[in-house]
Design brief:
Elements lengths: L1 H8 L4 H19 L4 H11 L5 H25 L4 H7 E4 L1 H11 L1 E6 L20 E6 L5 H11 L5 E4 L3 H10 L4 E6 L11 E5 L2 E5 L2 H9 L3 E10 L2 E10 L9 H16 L17
Parallel strand pairs: 1-9, 2-5, 2-8, 3-4, 3-5
Antiparallel strand pairs: 6-7, 8-9
Helix pairs in contact: 2-4, 3-4
Length: 286
Amino acid sequence: MLKSFVSIVSRWPLSVHYWFADWLIFPVMYHIVRYRRKLVDQNLRNSFPEKTDQERQQIAKDFYHQFCDTIVETIYGYHCSDEEMRERVVFVGMDEVNRLIDAAGGGIFMLAHFGNWEWMASIQQWVSPGVTELNVYRKLKNGSMDELMLSIRSKRGGSCVEKQRILREMVRYRSEKHPITVGLLSDQKPRPEVTRTWVEFLHQETGFLDGGEVLGKKFGYPVFYLYITRKKRGYYCVQMRTIAADPKNTAESEITRAYAKLLEENIQEQPAMWLWTHNRFLWKRM
């Protein structure tokens, strides 16, 4: 039922989606429900102590507008053609990325909840023919919503794999000599008891997931960061930054720290684009 409803709504022009984002979703989320406003304000205050209260308030407001845009853009993307998506999300530097992936038999894409991260699955259209994209995800508790998001995220030809199964799937594809890329949203908060990499990130000691580094080293796959910039509403440019062309020859935590540095640079350039509703900084190493 939910999937059918979204399929119908996704056919509306994007301008209509943005009207709902501006005049319905944003007012409800920002002014009425005040969705995680205290957490957002706290995150911004701790991350940008050098900014004034007015500047941080503007970032917060811009963030909620972007968040609402991400919601409606994700719905619109369910029906959006591949041709239009290639115009809306442009990946720069794919020649070098594809060269490294073809040589190694695979690649690791590390990205973040930045801009419209859901549209980043369209990178499947930019990799070499025959390469399969595996997107790591966490299963949602709501069955209908989980089915919908799987359908949306697989729209461009990639496959969604639960994090518990990703290693097994990578081994299977490797044994079949089938080239793959693995997409990881690596800005999730790891459990403190298993955190191995701590970084001074946005003025706060922050733990980072190291799955991208572990998988890159294990399989010898080059690791890349998707540096996202919103050029204008509904249009994103993604610069492919090579973190490690030969991950097996990197020091411990080198890849994870490089990812954190690039993400911080990305956030400082366009602070409203990151998902500030993340419960990201509320615990530290003991």
